[in-house]
Specification:
By secondary structure, the chain is α/β, with parallel strands linked by helices. It is 30% helix and 20% strand. It folds into two domains: 162 residues, Rossmann fold (3-Layer(aba) Sandwich); 231 residues, Dihydrodipicolinate Reductase, domain 2 (2-Layer Sandwich). The longest helix has 20 residues.
């Protein structure tokens, strides 16, 4: 990567990459706690589909405004600036220049997964609070760095697991933790997506106009542009963790919350390309994994979490969900609500009990934490533990064997090759310094 990022019209000059990538300690003072009637100024880092969606959700909240946006894809940046308010909104090619803006109190980080850690840590250093899309980070080591940065700089960091703020999930968790389902020894979690036939093997080519490909790669290894890397980054080792890590964080967060444990003991995963025809994707389109958890307040003897991903199957009515299997009843939970089926109900053929979703309040929860300075329910550490199972599944699958996890040291036991995947190497000059 060059030491100087180019100027893009109105986007503004950027600092040299080397000066910032070395873990610069920001001189900006920590943001002042906003009062109950103060407007909260937000910045958006990452103006793709998810970023602009989150921006719209925050703009729906009273007392908030977007004052700056940042993206290395100029067409997306221009479009986001227009949606945020037009000429009154600052636009930056380089997110680090956005973080120098002292009018901003908090940022939304909705970048590609391999770009979650650096903007979040730099934002904490700049005295900004962070709403961070899931997964928390692209590696377990990066996730721990985010937790440490939030603590060191006393910043509010909330992961975007919006289900954590939904009423139906809170009620389901209360039922599970009350013992209403009986003894639970297994939780099944699944993601069914029909993305058949995949995206083939497009050749490397020039990046589209307005995309700074070298900056997009950032700390990832230098490679020529390929449409699948950019448009379907979920499926590549250097940029994401596929559904078992990137989507399923939503599931693991709720499982941990309900079961009262968040640190697995062992993980084993298997799968492969069993559906898509020839393509250049790296993660499997078909995957199953078993995660073993120790004893906890709900499962007194421990339990197994069984995760299933299917990339090429017909989507069922409950395509993204989880089921808690107890000796008295089972509870199926997804964004449509939850259903309890008791042993008696099965025998008597009586109706299940259901509850429907009432909406999303996660943005509101984040803003309330900015004003109160209370730690979010879905804070950086909760997000870190919710991301670990997916990372371990990928490590197991890539290693080809069962993983034994040391939760205290956050390392794979007695397996240097697998343990090397807990952390990731950064391409110079990028560094992750807290």
């Amino acid at each position: 990567m060059s030491n100087q990022t180019t100027r893009r019209g109105f986007l503004g000059a950027t600092a040299t990459a080397a000066a910032w990538a070395g873990g610069r300690a920001y001189s900006a003072e920590a943001s002042v706690k906003p009062g109950p009637n103060d407007t909260i100024n937000l910045g958006l880092i990452g103006c793709g589909g998810r970023g602009t969606y989150l921006m719209s959700r925050f703009l729906e909240q009273p007392g908030t405004r977007i004052v700056a946006v940042s993206d290395i894809n100029e067409p997306r940046l221009v479009a986001a600036r227009k949606r945020a308010g037009g000429d009154t909104v600052q636009a930056y090619h380089d997110y680090r220049k956005l973080l120098e803006n002292k009018d901003i109190q908090a940022v939304i980080v909705a970048t590609n997964k391999h770009w979650h850690a650096l903007p979040t840590v730099h934002a904490c250093q700049a005295g900004k609070d962070v709403y961070l899309e899931k997964p928390l980070a692209h590696s377990i080591g990066e996730g721990r760095a985010i937790v440490q940065a939030a603590e060191k700089y006393q910043r509010i960091v909330q992961i975007g697991t919006q289900q954590h703020s939904w009423e139906q999930y809170r009620q389901a968790v209360e039922i599970i933790r009350s013992g209403g389902l009986g003894e639970i020894s297994e939780v099944k979690v699944w993601d069914y997506e029909n993305q058949y036939p995949g995206w083939g093997c497009p050749p490397d080519c020039d990046p589209p106009a307005g995309l700074d490909w070298d900056f997009w790669l950032g700390p990832a290894p230098k490679k020529p542009y390929n449409p699948n890397y950019f448009l379907h980054d979920y499926w590549f080792f250097d940029y994401a963790g596929s559904f078992q890590c990137d989507w399923a964080v939503h599931h693991y967060d709720i499982v941990h919350w309900a079961m009262g444990v968040d640190r697995p003991k062992t993980v084993v995963a298997m799968g492969g390309m069993m559906c898509f025809p020839k393509n250049n994707l790296q993660y499997p389109d078909t995957l199953d994994a078993i995660v073993e958890y120790p004893a906890g307040p709900v499962a007194k003897q421990g339990f197994l979490m069984h995760y299933t991903f299917r990339g090429g199957c017909r989507r069922e009515h409950r395509s993204h969900g989880k089921c808690f299997f107890g000796t008295k009843a089972s509870l199926i939970l997804d964004r449509g609500g939850y259903t309890i089926t008791s042993e008696k109900a099965i025998n008597d053929r009586s109706k299940d009990v259901s509850f429907r979703s009432t909406g999303d309040t996660h943005a509101q929860a984040f803003l309330e934490c900015l004003r109160s300075r209370k730690k979010p329910a879905a804070d950086a550490e909760v997000g870190h533990y919710a991301t670990i199972p997916g990372h371990l599944m990928n490590i197991s699958w890539r290693s080809g064997h069962k993983i034994h996890w040391d939760a205290e040291k956050e390392e794979v036991k007695d397996d240097p090759q697998a343990n090397a995947l807990v952390h990731k190497e950064y391409r110079a000059p990028w560094k992750l310094d807290i």
